[in-house]
Amino acid sequence: MTRPTGPQLIVLCVLAGGAAGWPAAMAPAGLAAWAQSATAALDDAAVARAIRESPAGLSPLELRDRGGLFSGAGAGYRITVYTPQTWVARLARQAGALLSVADVAPADRASLLRVVAAPSAPTVGASRDQSSAVLRVLLLDESRRGQLTPEAFQSFAARHRELLGGARALNGMEATFALEDLDALRGGPDREFFVRVEGTGYSKDFKIKRKHFVHLPM
Question: Residue 1 domain-assigned?
Answer without folding.
Answer: no
